[in-house]
Amino acid sequence: MAGDPTLIGRVTRSSTLGFVGALKSPEPEIPVFGMFCKCEAQRGKSDVLGVIYNINIEDDDLTRQIAAAERPTEEELADQQYVRQIPIEFEALAVGYRLTEAYFYTLPPQPPLALAPIRPMKSDEIVQFTNQFEFIPLILSASNLPVDALLAACLRKASVARPRQERQNFLLEAGRYCAKLLSHDLPRMDSFLRILCFEEKSAI
Fold first, then answer.
1. What is each CA distance from 133 to 13, 129, 187, in whole angstroms?
2. At residue 134, what are phi and psi to the nearest 5 degrees?
3. Is the pLDDT of residue 4 over 50?
4. Is the pLDDT assigned to residue 31 strictly greater than 90?
5. For the chain, counts of helices (H) and of strands (E)
6. Is the confidence at residue 12, as pLDDT, over 70?
7. CA 121/CA 123 separation, integer angstroms
């Protein structure tokens, strides 16, 4: 992975609903919650598009020993956190796919294969994909996930991929779209819009 700076992991398992990736030595900001990523499928003919909703940092015997020590040294902490390569696993929810140059806002026809490369979506790809809001229902309908926080994080990342002068309008339009989808659940709609407003202040 060190030879390919755009590679953030490889698939360990997958389904039409999403995929799980693993890596050993992440960059400081990769992967992050709500990040848009893509993964090759159908032997490279398509890309499954996902958003990262969970990141697990695995432990081992040495980690537990150091954590249990009364006063671990700075050298031990630095070695554990920055030198030793501890497996990291992240999970992504499928929110669409790309076939040739067209985006589709539905679950992919096939999941990616094991060890398929996972890469972050570029800013222009995020803008093109999120120019339509049809990916939002897939996030809101996901079960057993922190979907409101995830969606707000995704929309923030979609906004910062745009020129500064377009960010506020994008978030306002996205907020209106989400409000329509959540109009049957007013408490949840109010809670989500509060989260989105907080994300909007951070993004602009």
1. 28, 8, 22
2. -65, -15
3. yes
4. no
5. 7, 7
6. yes
7. 7
Supply φ then ψ for residue 144, to 5 degrees. Answer: 60, 30
| Per-residue DSSP letter, 31 | S
**What residue type is assigned to position 200 of the chain?**
E
Q: Is residue 150 exposed (0-12), middle (13-18) or buried (19+ Cβ within 10 Å)?
A: buried
Which residue type does 19 have? F
Q: Quick one: which of 117, 119, 114 has its CA closest to 13?
A: 114
User: pLDDT tens, 33-53?
Assistant: 999 999 999 988 999 999 999
Which stretch of DSSP H or E encloses residue 102? strand 102-104
- For 173, counting Cβ atoms within 10 Å of its Cβ (0-12 exposed, 13-18 middle, 19+ buried), the class is exposed
pLDDT, residue 102, reads: 96
Determine how β-strand 36-41 pairs with β-strand 117-120. Answer: antiparallel
> Identity (one letter) of the amino acid at 75?
E
The pair of structure tokens assigned to 136 is 């939002």
Task: Answer whether residue 85 shows pLDDT above 50.
Answer: yes
Does position 58 have pLDDT exceeding 80, yes or no?
no
Q: What distance separates the 2 farthest-apart alpha carbons in the chain?
A: 56
SS3 assignment, position 81: helix
